[in-house]
Design a protein that fits this description.
Layout lengths: L23 H11 L3 H8 L3 H13 L6 E5 L5 H7 L4 E6 L2 H8 L6 E5 L12 E7 L8 H11 E12 L5 H22 L3 H13 L3 H10 L2 E9 L4 E8 L2
Parallel strand pairs: 1-2, 1-4, 2-3, 4-5
Antiparallel strand pairs: 5-7, 6-7
Helix pairs in contact: 2-7, 3-4, 7-8
């Protein structure tokens, strides 16, 4: 998609809703732009809660030495590092080259880096003991295709963990949270990010995202069973865990 001459490429944002109108190339370009300060911005804008959310996700998987784990939409590999702390072998996959490069430049020798599309994973069937995706599923243009691919590469009985922004469980808190997302967050992003406009998209994509129960249904439809979720920080984030059908 080429923007009109009077529109900066930075002002052209992806559709915040997953579906055929979501331009994967625009998503890729957006993450390439925000890569230099992405982790710092996330920590500041979440008031440090992002670290706790990742620790909960890694603990839910409980990867052990000898396990092979795939972290889809890994970005700079923050969750991948937590997953690999136990000695598991972890592949950090993302379609933004700049995000992967920012992570690889930190010199972690334990991670394997892979630049690829989350809806077309370049791995054989039943390769991984566990597959994770943190704050990336809603950026895929086709959620069903992404989940189907994760199911395909997971061993029978293997695990999936989807860590994603969700719907606060209390109505009053939900209203305040949405006001923060759509009003305060884009303003705060101007102070700490390299591309504040991207955070307008991120806020809108969170509001448009299905709630916990609806996401659980989509995970089950992809071929996973025993789907359950844990609300974190009042439901701002939910960790969905399931196992690949045998």
């Amino acid at each position: 998609m080429t923007p009109p001459p009077h529109v900066s490429p930075r002002d052209v944002l992806p559709d915040p809703r997953s579906g055929p109108d979501k331009d994967a190339e625009l998503v890729q370009r957006m993450f390439d732009r925000v890569a230099p300060r992405y982790d710092l911005a996330n920590t500041l804008l979440s008031v440090g809660h992002d670290r706790h959310w990742r620790r909960v996700a890694a603990a839910a998987i409980g990867a052990r030495r000898g396990d092979l784990v795939l972290d889809v939409a890994s970005g700079t590999g923050m969750l991948a590092r937590d997953l690999g702390a136990s000695g598991a072998e972890v592949v950090a996959l993302d379609f933004s080259w700049n995000m992967l490069r920012a992570g690889a430049d930190r010199g972690d020798p334990l991670l394997l880096w892979c630049n690829a599309d989350g809806t077309r994973l370049p791995f054989a069937d039943a390769t991984f003991d566990a597959v994770t995706i943190a704050f990336g599923l809603r950026n895929l243009p086709d959620i069903a295709a992404g989940l189907a691919e994760m199911a395909r590469v997971t061993k029978p009985g293997g695990q999936i963990l989807v860590l994603e922004f969700s719907t606060p469980v209390r109505a009053a808190f939900r209203i305040l949270y949405h006001r923060y997302l759509l009003g305060c967050l884009p303003c705060a992003a101007r102070l700490v990010t390299s591309d504040p406009a991207a955070y307008r998209y991120l806020a809108e994509s969170i509001v448009a995202w299905p709630d916990q129960r609806a996401l659980a249904s989509r995970i089950a439809a992809a071929g996973f069973q025993q789907v359950r979720w844990k609300n974190l920080t009042g439901g701002i984030v939910a960790a969905h865990h399931a196992r690949r059908s045998s």
